[in-house]
Amino acid sequence: MSLDTPQAEARLERLTACEAWQRLEHERASRLTQLQAIGEAGPDAEEQGAAMQKDTIQRVLTEVEAAFARVQDGSYGVCRSCSKPIPVERLEILPYTRFCVPCQRNAA
């Protein structure tokens, strides 16, 4: 199934708060491990784009923290643009996403 399948055809399944929390914790741990690896690479890594990698990882970590807040306030899994449920398949791939695929495309 495509991630941009119309909602009527998408699985009506939703991630539970516990499942969402676990996915987000895994995502955060992975990104923190990446940051640590970049830091341990030493000064030569800075010349190879490590600064840009760090910025990207920090942005993802910010998104992950915002997703934790959405889990807590009950708005997790709802598109911030169209207010429709984000398909579970998308949340499995990007647990911190704020938008469904069509709205993400429109935002880009």
Account of the protein in words:
The protein is mostly helical and 108 residues long. Residues 5-12 have low confidence and may be disordered. The chain has helices at 17-40, 43-47, 50-73, 88-93, 101-107. The protein has one domain (17-107): Up-down Bundle (Four Helix Bundle (Hemerythrin (Met), subunit A)), CATH 1.20.120.910. The longest helix is centred in the first third of the chain and has 24 residues, at 17-40. Helix 1 (17-40) packs antiparallel against helix 3.
Strand and helix map with partners:
Blueprint: H1 17-40, H2 43-47, H3 50-73, H4 88-93, H5 101-107
Helix pairs in contact: 1-3
Question: Summed up, what is this model?
Answer:
This protein is an all-alpha fold and 108 residues long.
CATH superfamily: DksA, coiled-coil domain
End-to-end separation:
22 Å
Uncertain regions spanning at least 5 consecutive residues: 5-12
Computed over alpha carbons, the radius of gyration is 16 Å
Strand content: under 5%
Number of helices: 5
Count up the domains. 1
Can you give keywords for this protein?
0% strand, mainly alpha, Four Helix Bundle (Hemerythrin (Met), subunit A), 61% helix
